[in-house]
Amino acid sequence: MSGCSLKGNASETIFQYKDSYIGDTSAVAGIIKQLRSNEQFEKLSLETKNKPYGMVVDYKESRSMSEKNMEETALYNAAFIFALIKNANWITFDFEIQKYTITKEKLEKWYGKPLGKISGEKELKSIYNQKGVKGFFEN
Fold first, then answer.
1. Burial bucket for residue 109 (CB in 10 Å: 0-12, 13-18, 19+)
2. Pick from 32, 12, 10, 13: which is nearest to 22 by CA?
3. Does residue 1 sit within a domain?
């Protein structure tokens, strides 16, 4: 029997979902299950009836998270989702007590690079780490 675990080395294969589409629920869920705070992931709502396409990602038991942790999680996860899902244009992260909506356009301006051109996890993490979170949510 062979299979993939969502723990351990699974993050090394997150780019297997590169060029997915927002309508592919299993790909979107597979990405989210490998991102930050995945243990608190509760529900995914895909908005695909009208453009621009987007999604709402709900987290449970997130009340104990600090504002900084929520912002870092939202920005980090958004970077991966936008890099991997071709037609995702916006994401709302709902942490019970705080919601963050991030658009692909704003995040690409923040990073100064089209996220769809990023080819690997190492490159994406490097861009995220260089730019950080400070200031993104203030605009």
1. exposed
2. 32
3. no
